[in-house]
Amino acid sequence: MKDELRSLASLAGPFPPFDPDAAAGEPRELFATWLRDAIDAGIREPHAMTLSTVDETGLPDARILILKNLDDRGWHFATTNAGPKGRQIAVNPYVALTFYWPSLGRQVRIRGVALDSGTTERDADFRARSAGARAVALLSRQSDPLLSESELDDGLRRQRQRLAADPDLVAPNWAVFVVMPHEVEFWQGDTERRHMRLRYRRDRTGWIKERLWP
Ligand SMILES: Cc1cc2nc3c(=O)[nH]c(=O)nc-3n(C[C@H](O)[C@H](O)[C@H](O)COP(=O)(O)O)c2cc1C
Question: Looking at ligand 1, which residue's alpha carbon is closest to its atom 4?
Fold first, then answer.
């Protein structure tokens, strides 16, 4: 395995240029540009990101989620708040988000606080989901141990029937969280490993931009 891993290419390039001095004074604009670049480059699921949380014993946890929106409050994601990540955020709302766009050699790291964005956004997000996705969410059992496939099949059938009878139904545990950042780092990989790193740090007066050593 070790030799096989060593033989795999990483950060092979070529990568686009990145001029940190030309970047905006706040991170959202640069993030939107990089996300658009990833979409235009044809990267699959460019809106997939790793959400890292900390559990009640202080141990880290992480999983991939889909970015649902980006606005002046921050980065939005949708999930059930009844499962592990929802419980972890309830105890400790400090989270991190990580994006990686391989063919561009770009990574973005965001650290911030996750806040529940409220029922209006939650309801709209839930109703925009596919019927299958809504049925699964209505089960409200995410990450519980699954003891029988037929229990899952029966549960899904029941939830689909409920949705057919009441298409506006919203899972009570559904939530949209918005991550309000206090630190955002943009990392542009370089084939010679002279990576270009730009970090935005929020202080009382606004955003501080600083270059980091590779
Ligand atoms: C590409 C991808 C996208 C995903 N998107 C979501 C999502 O938007 N919301 C969600 O709750 N889970 C999503 N998941 C599943 C999560 O990674 C995770 O398995 C699930 O949310 C349970 O996490 P938890 O046990 O830490 O609460 C996605 C997984 C993948 C691989």
Answer: 65
